[in-house]
Design a protein that fits this description.
Order of helices and strands: EHEHEEEHEHEHHH
Shape: elongated
Helix content: 55-70%
Largest sheet: 5 strands, parallel
Radius of gyration: 23 Å
Number of helices: 7
Strand content: 5-15%
Structural class: alpha/beta
């Protein structure tokens, strides 16, 4: 191929013609087919083992629902999923959205649409994970500030400054300091007797 691979893609579709069209479009766009599965039961293992950057799922699979399989893969493998279907009904789109699907490709495949769809799906998924991580870290820091405020009678600003100073002094991220403080707080806090 001579150069880097644009994305590694897992295909989950029980129709050979659809898989062949997707393979050709992926290769033409500079991607690589990392794995293929024909059944819902094999989807998670295929995506996980392959280390795919993105997965393309058919909605109708011979042994189950592709939207349910997509939700499982998104949650367990942390991989963005694009649906590939000929169905456009609102209920299906709503289910796909609720499952966390990042994009929707309509059959018959128009190869020119594949690359931008996969690029956007991968980018949006990465951004959403980063935002979720930042929010989780913010919650940990807020809980640590609350613990300092309660234990030492500090204002929120004073608690934040203490956490920031400890992070700077130890050259560690503030969230690590906050987690350590919360762990030590749980050890120091008396446990109510039963």
């Amino acid at each position: 191929m001579g150069g880097s691979v644009r994305w590694r893609v897992a295909i989950v579709d029980d129709h050979e013609r659809s898989r062949a069209a997707l393979r050709a479009a992926i290769w033409a766009a500079g991607g690589e087919v990392a794995a293929e599965a024909r059944r819902r039961a094999d989807a998670l293992a295929a995506v996980t083992r392959s280390g795919a950057d993105v997965a393309i799922f058919a909605v109708g699979l011979s042994d189950g629902d592709g939207v349910d399989a997509a939700a499982e893969v998104i949650g367990a493998a942390g991989c963005p999923v694009v649906l590939f279907t000929s169905h456009t009904d609102a209920e299906l789109v709503q289910r796909a959205n609720a499952a966390g699907v990042m994009a929707y490709l309509l059959k018959p495949l128009r190869p020119a649409e594949l690359a931008p769809t996969l690029d956007i799906a991968v980018t949006r998924f990465r951004e959403s994970r980063q935002l979720r991580k930042a929010l989780e870290e913010r919650k940990v820091i807020d809980r640590a500030k609350g613990a300092l405020m309660t234990r030492l009678g500090l204002t929120e600003e004073e608690a934040f400054r203490r956490l920031r100073r400890a992070a700077m002094d130890s050259r560690r991220p503030m969230v690590e300091i906050a987690r350590a403080l919360l762990v030590s707080e749980s050890v120091v806090t008396p446990v109510p007797e039963e």
